[in-house]
């Protein structure tokens, strides 16, 4: 048996060389610098002044109503009326209450007479006992009758006092000096006890009320001073302190109501439009676009371009205040740092970059 050996042809060798070359991957191309937009970190002094528009409101507004139910016979005031303490505001029909008062006076007169008779009887029985004309049981019986009559007299006196008080409840008086801001009942209307008839704004204390965004509330320093200026007369400038902040946001505007206590002089009319100005960040800070903010380990950070290697470094920073378009950094950066302000979500540390103006 004869074996034959066939040598590969030239075409076969050429095909094998092309197949081997196709299996080898080309070397990776060098990464091109990514263009970035930057700003220079420039510290500023004195912080930023924020101005908000609000209005003057009374610190205390009280809904005043009658302590008993009845029909309103008169209302003496209208909205905007200035009233003094003790001034008559409204009255109720007092016919039934006046009848109750007369009945209470009659009961008191009857109880007074009965108590006087019982006391005289007790004194007489005591004299007879001393002369041994009556037994002790007669004195005890007279004493019990007098004590019972005295108790009825005390009850009648209390009932008369209550009737007088109910008669006074038919007259609604101003508990303090102020201004009427709302009306809740008119003459002829039957009202239950406690229903608001008028609303009285006390003139003792005034507040400037502002609706403020959450970002301003969260970053406000404690015991901050607010400069309040009257819009109709800019020469009237007052200095107030924050009295209170509403614990919940308005469901429509998502803002918080802030009350600023105003001094008593000069008095401002209720509803007057004012502006409130506060200054944040009294020390040095760096203002950056909000688009520069990223995060590292859940904390605020920004990307800084290393000047020599043109690589990115992610630096943690301390942000004192946020607005819709700006952040204020108080630590973590140095003056002159190049801060990346756009596309930070697509960047990574140590990435080579080029300034946007250098890319052709």
UniProtKB/TrEMBL annotation:
Pfam families according to UniProt: Beta-barrel_RND_2 (PF25954), BSH_RND (PF25917), HH_MFP_RND (PF25876), RND-MFP_C (PF25967)
Start and end residues of each Multidrug resistance protein MdtA-like alpha-helical hairpin domain: 101-170
All copies of domain Multidrug resistance protein MdtA-like barrel-sandwich hybrid, residue ranges: 63-196
CusB-like beta-barrel domain: residues covered: 210-265
UniProt keyword list: Signal, Transport
Family in the record: Belongs to the membrane fusion protein (MFP) (TC 8.A.1) family.
Protein name: Efflux RND transporter periplasmic adaptor subunit
Annotated source species: Bradyrhizobium denitrificans
């Amino acid at each position: 048996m004869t074996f034959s050996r066939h040598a590969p042809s030239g075409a076969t060798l050429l095909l094998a060389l092309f197949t081997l070359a196709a299996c080898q991957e080309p070397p990776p191309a060098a990464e091109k610098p990514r263009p970035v937009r930057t700003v220079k970190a420039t510290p500023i002094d004195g912080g930023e002044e924020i101005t908000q528009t609000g209005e003057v409101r009374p610190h205390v507004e009280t809904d005043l109503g009658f302590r008993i139910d009845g029909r309103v016979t008169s209302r003496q005031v209208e909205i905007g009326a200035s009233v003094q303490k003790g001034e008559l505001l409204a009255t109720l029909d007092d016919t039934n209450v006046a009848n109750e008062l007369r009945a209470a006076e009659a009961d008191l007169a009857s109880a007074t007479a009965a108590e006087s008779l019982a006391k005289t009887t007790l004194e007489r029985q005591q004299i007879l006992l001393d002369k041994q004309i009556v037994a002790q049981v007669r004195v005890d019986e007279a004493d019990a009758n007098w004590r019972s009559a005295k108790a009825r007299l005390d009850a009648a006196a209390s009932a008369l006092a209550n009737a007088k008080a109910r008669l006074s409840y038919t007259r609604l008086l101003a508990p303090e000096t102020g201004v009427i801001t709302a009306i809740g009942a008119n003459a002829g209307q039957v009202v239950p006890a406690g229903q608001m008839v008028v609303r009285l704004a006390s003139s003792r204390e005034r507040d400037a009320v502002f609706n403020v965004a959450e970002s301003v509330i969260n970053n406000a320093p404690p015991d901050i001073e607010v400069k309040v200026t009257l819009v109709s007369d800019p020469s009237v400038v007052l200095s107030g302190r924050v009295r209170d902040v509403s614990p919940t946001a308005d469901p429509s505007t998502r803002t918080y109501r802030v009350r600023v206590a105003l001094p008593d002089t000069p008095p401002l009319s209720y509803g007057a439009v004012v502006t409130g100005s506060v200054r944040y960040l009294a020390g040095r800070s760096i203002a950056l676009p909000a688009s520069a903010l990223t995060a590292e380990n859940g904390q605020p950070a920004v990307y800084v371009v290393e000047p020599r290697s043109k690589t990115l470094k992610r630096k943690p920073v301390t942000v004192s205040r946020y607005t819709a378009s700006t952040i204020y950094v108080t630590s973590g950066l140095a003056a002159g740092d190049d801060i990346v302000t756009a596309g930070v979500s697509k960047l990574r540390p140590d990435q080579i970059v080029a300034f946007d103006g250098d890319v052709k």
